[in-house]
Amino acid sequence: MGEFNIDGYCVFSNNLEENSRGILTYVRKDVKCTQIFPNIGFSECLTLELEDDKHHKLNIATIYRSPNSTIENDMKIIE
Questions:
Q1: Most CB contacts within 10 A, which of 3, 10, 54, 67?
Q2: DSSP tag of 16
Q3: Spatial separation of the C-alpha atoms in residues 60 and 64, rounded to whole Å
Q4: Is the dihedral of CA 3, 30, 63, 46 positive or negative?
Q5: Residue 17 in 3-state DSSP?
Q6: CA-to-CA distance for 47 and 27, rounded, in angstroms?
Q7: DSSP string for 18-79
Q8: What's the domain count of the chain?
Q9: How many CB atoms lie within 10 A of CB 14?
Q10: What's the pLDDT tens digit per position in 39-67?
Q11: What is the C-alpha separation between 79 and 12, in angstroms, rounded?
């Protein structure tokens, strides 16, 4: 995944190595960040927890829904 590196940033991805597509999210290296792996049954998402120096936490998620998504997949996103 070296071709996706940007100086000064950490790159997080969802199973990009296993698929020919995936989600990438870049976070500045000076931001404390951990990737979270929720058990939601939906693989086209990337969830991160950011924390500041006062231990305030913020969870962010990047979700991709294909235009060809199935009804079952749509229901997993809604849940």
A1: 10
A2: T
A3: 14
A4: positive
A5: coil
A6: 12
A7: TSS---EEEEETTSEEEEE----S--SEEEEEEE-TT--EEEEEEE---TT--HHHHHHHH-
A8: 1
A9: 21
A10: 777 778 899 999 999 999 999 998 888 88
A11: 24
Name the pTM for this structure: 0.76
16: amino acid identity, one letter: L
Question: Are 27 and 12 within 8 A, CB to CB?
Answer: yes
The better pLDDT of the pair 65, 29 is held by 29
Contact (CB, 8 A) for 57 and 51: yes
Mean pLDDT of the chain: 85
Domain span at residue 51 reads: 2-78
Instruction: State both tokens at 36.
Output: 């979270």
